[in-house]
Write a structure and sequence with these properties.
The complex is a heterodimer of chains A (190) and B (393).
Chain A (H helix, E strand, L loop, with lengths): L3 H23 L3 H21 L3 H24 L14 H21 L7 H6 L6 H9 L3 H22 L10 H6 L9
Helix pairs in contact in A: 1-2, 2-3
Chain B lengths: L1 E4 L2 E5 H34 L15 H11 L10 H18 L17 H10 L1 H11 L3 H31 L1 E2 L9 E2 L4 H6 L6 H4 L1 H14 L11 H4 L9 H25 L8 H4 L6 H25 L5 H29 L4 H23 L18
Antiparallel strand pairs in B: 1-2, 3-4
Helix pairs in contact in B: 1-2, 1-11, 1-13, 2-11, 3-4, 3-5, 3-11, 4-6, 5-6, 6-9, 6-14, 9-14, 9-15, 11-13, 14-15
Classes of the chains: A mainly alpha (190), B mainly alpha (393).
């Protein structure tokens, strides 16, 4: 059986994750919601750790808690209704339907899968090995196509962002601010 | 479950964890107070002043006095500030830095934990504090704080890329002791202990000069140090995200800033200067005694910290647009090229001297790019009144 610490950690982390996730939907304040989202991400990273999935836990913190949450902050700041007391709940009906459908899929899958349940001696014989080497070999071996497709997708997203912010009337690449600033520039070339 | 700590066997895991956490907190606080004193003294020398002299012998107790004053100061909160975000932000800035100390290799076998994913863990946990900066900036309900928080986020996200790529470039070529089963020498490790042990004879400084410089620049930006102190620049945003903080919460920001400097210096010493292993590995196979290793690591970390203070005393602050174009147009392409070259050397078994040569060429390119940028500075963005279209509103 798992040690007591792991069991306690599982319940505590689950409670934190579920309570914060539920609060995100109930809060009116978008910035508070983002902070709670970070808590959810960290809680999930903790849950991954209790499963001995150290690489996924660290990646979860690095990508979701560190980067995606900041992206959300910028998105919220650019939203006109992002002031405090944002009271609109649009698309509540379709959202609930979609959420319910996803939850149903997850539950059905969880009950349908033959989980590899090990206990007692069998569990102790499965000694923990570090996962990063296996993941690396899998990603660059059998799954290299999916890996590359994901890279190309991200590259297109990057290019798309650059195209979106570039002024089409301005071919030499300088932005409108620089054009306007040229006559007031201090220093300049020698 | 039980582990071993300081030679005592069979210590409960929780007790072991508690002891290590307390040791780290104590160590961190003392060293941070020393760093603040050191920075004031060194800066004073650069500016032909004396620095603190009155409190204690040669001003040594100045930091202690400051700390006592800060603890006793009233913890104010502006009436319009958002209570939860404002109060919790200092913890979210401080705790990630503190968590980073888990993997720092002080001396051989003297660390909280040896993690297989050491470097990745370090990058991941120290990245969380950006959220804390934004919370502080937004929660203060102060325009200066808000602008500072946004700048901190933009800068932190941008400079994390060259920082991570520089660590990756080193981690991918590290030679791991050969596997006894297969007998072949493996390459690539994120484990800081293995990275240090691999540098026993030649530190990464020799193989990766460009990576070292890019890491130093990116670290300056991550630490919000001059010339990248845009989020906290007093003359622009009067202290940035922590303009409204006082007393114990403000000192937590301060503690986090210097603790981050300390941890970055220790990582620098470990990854590029060979930590406790170099140059001890040149003379004998056994590692030096612990006190000598500690002196060695302190000296290397101190070198990094002194360079940070030196740059602070010498270079003026960049503008935000200069900062962004520097990382995206100069640092990032250089790091991509370096990672590519490291990969080629790994795959085709080219001699390692290729790394040194290409690294030095990269340094030359970087210096020329900076030189050109200094001679032909980007025009200053127009004041808001001259803007047209959407940006003007």
């Amino acid at each position: 059986m798992d040690s007591v610490g792991v069991v306690i950690a599982f319940y505590v982390l689950s409670a934190i994750t579920i309570v914060s996730a539920a609060s995100i939907f109930l809060l009116r304040n978008l910035v508070h919601a983002i902070v709670l989202l970070v808590v959810v991400f960290l809680g999930m990273a903790g849950l991954f750790l209790t499963l001995s999935a150290d690489f996924i836990a660290v990646a979860q913190i690095l990508i979701y808690a560190g980067a995606i949450s900041v992206l959300f902050v910028f998105a919220v700041m650019l939203t006109p209704l992002a002031s405090r007391d944002n009271g609109n709940s649009l698309y509540a009906g379709p959202g609930l339907l979609l959420g319910g459908a996803i939850a149903a899929i997850v539950v059905v899958t969880a009950f349908d899968v033959e989980w590899n349940q090990l206990t007692g001696v069998a569990l102790e014989q499965r000694s923990f090995t570090d996962t990063i080497e296996v993941i690396g070999n899998q990603l660059l071996g059998p799954h290299v196509l999916a890996f590359e497709v994901a890279s190309v997708l991200l590259l297109f997203a990057l290019l798309g962002a650059i195209v979106l912010v570039t002024d089409p009337n301005n071919e030499d690449g300088t932005t409108a601010e620089e054009e306007a600033g040229k006559d007031t520039a201090v220093g300049g070339s020698e | 479950m039980s582990t071993e700590i300081f030679g005592f066997d069979g210590v409960n895991v929780w007790v072991d964890g508690l002891v290590r956490v307390l040791l780290i907190v104590g160590f961190m606080t003392v060293v941070v107070m020393g760093l603040i004193y050191g920075e004031r003294k060194i800066l004073a020398r650069f500016q032909q002043r004396l620095g603190p002299t009155r409190t204690g012998p040669v001003g040594l107790l100045q930091s202690v006095a400051d700390a006592l004053k800060l603890v006793g100061k009233e913890d104010l909160r502006p009436r319009n500030a958002d209570a939860w975000t404002f109060e919790l932000a200092p913890y979210l800035v401080f705790v990630p830095v503190f968590l980073g100390f888990v993997i720092v290799p002080f001396v051989l076998d003297w660390q909280v934990r040896i993690l297989e994913l050491g470097l990745l863990y370090f990058v991941a946990v120290t990245g969380i504090n950006i959220v804390g900066w934004i919370m502080a900036g937004w929660g203060s309900d102060n325009r200066y704080a808000m602008i500072g928080g946004m700048r901190a986020a933009a800068q932190g996200i941008s400079y994390e890329l060259p920082l991570v790529l520089s660590l990756l470039a080193v981690a991918m070529v590290v030679e791991v002791p050969s596997d006894s089963a297969t007998g072949e020498s493996l390459r690539g490790s994120l484990n800081l202990n293995e990275i240090i042990a691999a540098q026993a004879e030649i530190p990464n400084l020799v193989w990766q000069p460009l990576v070292l410089i890019v890491f130093f620049i990116a670290a300056l930006a991550e630490l919000n140090r001059t010339p990248f102190d845009i989020p906290v620049g007093e003359s622009e945003v009067v202290g940035g995200p922590f303009v409204e903080y006082s007393g114990i919460r403000w000192s937590m920001f301060f503690l986090a800033e210097y603790a981050a400097l300390l941890i970055m210096s220790l990582i620098f010493a470990a990854v590029f200067l060979g930590g406790w292993a170099w140059p001890a590995g040149l003379f004998q196979d056994d590692p030096w005694p612990r006190w000598a290793q500690a002196l060695l690591v302190t000296g290397k970390a101190g070198l990094f910290i002194f360079m940070v203070f030196w740059v602070r005393a010498s270079v003026p602050r960049l503008r935000i647009d200069q900062l962004m174009s520097f990382t995206w147009k100069i640092l990032l392409p250089l790091m991509f090229a370096q990672v590519l070259i490291n990969g080629l050397v790994l795959v085709y078994d080219w001699p390692e001297i290729v790394l040194t040569v290409t690294g030095l060429v990269g340094v030359l390119v970087l210096v020329m790019a900076v030189d050109r940028a200094v001679r032909h500075p980007r025009p200053r963005p127009a004041p808001a009144t001259q803007l047209e279209g959407e940006a003007a509103s």
